[in-house]
Amino acid sequence: MRPEIEGLLASPEPAIRWLVRSRVLGEAAEEDRAAIPASEMVRRMVAGVGSQPYAKWQGAHWVLAALAEIGHPPGSAELIPLREQVLAAWLDESYDREVSVAYGKRGIPLLDGRYRAHASQQGYALWFLLKLGLADERCDRLAEMLLRWQWPDGGWNCDRNPAASASSFMETLLPMRGLWLYGTPRAREAARAAAEVFLTRRLAFGARSGELIRAEFGKLHFPLYWHYDILGGLKAMGEMGLLGDPRCSEALEMLQSMRLADGWPAHARYYSATSDNADWGGTSVKRANPWVTIDALTVLGGA
To answer: Measuring CA to CA, which residue among 62, 59, 64 is closest to residue 132?
Structure first.
């Protein structure tokens, strides 16, 4: 067994052990998964949730997203109040109201035939509620919103500049994951169209210039929240069974080149010491981050 896997299996955090056993080694490991809700980190995250669901990064939206990413077992009654916060926010009637930018009321701007929605919000909610076994019939409306707001090129964008005509990586990644997991034929077709937003750019590179679109896309992070990097893109391609597409090869090679002796690092982070109640392993260019390493091993194993 490789040293980095041995080190991860020795972690006191049950989510790390379960992720390694289930996603890297292909084992059941239900005992580790069952221990996740009672872990100190998870208890701290849940206890820290306030009344604002989108508060960064302690609101119900972000805590449920993190719990789904680390494999919290589905169907927990304790998480239902958090679900209610999230659905009350993202199913507000204003999301069914079309407005112009100049219009004073809340709603979704429709400019030049394109909805300018923060679709990552409904997209992530759809994904994590399904993963956590908390989805009900209201999630059908989340999916309907995403399908209605989708742009002609397959993705989504919140840019209110009328000249904006291409989808955003950040607004497209999470709706794509949510619709793929939702799993209806129409949702899967929409998610597959969204995948082309990334694949036509080889997951991180300008279609015309061939250069890295943003420096942050070439760094590794955990959690990503609503952001994007090559590992997040590859992880989504893995969920959709698309890692064999040759347009993933450059990003896979880039990820492989970032490997350290003990795994993969987190080069940067989007949280601060006071904005999250979880231990995400910190950042370093010289030592591995356990959560990033697990995702990297999962992706490369799937490829």
So the answer is: 64
